Amino acid sequence: QVQFVESGGGLVQAGGSRTLSCESAEFIEFATYTMTWYRTPPGKEREWVAWIGATDNTTWYPESVEGRFTISRDNAKKTLYLQMNSLTTEDTAVYYCTASGLKTYSGRGIQVTVSS
Q1: Based on the number of CB atoms within 10 Å of its own CB, is 99 exposed (0-12), middle (13-18) or buried (19 or more)?
Q2: What DSSP string runs through 38-102?
Q3: C-alpha–C-alpha distance, residues 114 and 109, integer Å
Q4: CB-based contacts of 63, cutoff 8 Å, min separation 6
């Protein structure tokens, strides 16, 4: 069973930055899976915030975060990243990483709280 360890969450002031990491040392097929960051804001539905392809590192973002968030991956380290800049209180949420391929694997989530 693939498990992800997410890190980098916590409390940040509005306008600040944060980088999340999602690592799975035993995920041998990491490089072949597309990776997505999702978030669940308090009292709201889960939404996707960043996607990166498996082979060419194509990235996609919804309008709500485009220009502020950057997803990247290091296949050698089996680690996914999410660089978040210009954070607002609307970015407060539990953030999850998900791997999609032959199977789907997700992390447990990590809290990011943006204070005004």
Answers
A1: buried
A2: EEE-TTS--EEEEEE-SSS--EE--TTTTTTEEEEEETTTTEEEEEE-S--GGG-EEEEEEEESS
A3: 16
A4: none
Question: What's the distance, CA 93 to chain centroid?
Answer: 11
Instruction: Determine the pLDDT at residue 84.
Output: 98
Token pair for 15: 């306008």
Give pLDDT tens digits for 35-81. 999 999 999 999 999 999 998 889 999 999 999 999 999 999 999 99
**What's the one-letter identity of residue 51?**
W
Average pLDDT for 20-39: 95
Q: Which amino acid is at 9?
A: G
Name the residue type at position 11. L
Structure tokens at 8: 């980098």
In whole angstroms, how large is the CA radius of gyration of the chain?
A: 13
State which H helix or E strand residue 95 sits in.
strand 93-100
Quick check: 31 and 52 in contact, CB under 8 A? no
User: For the chain, what's the residue count?
Assistant: 116
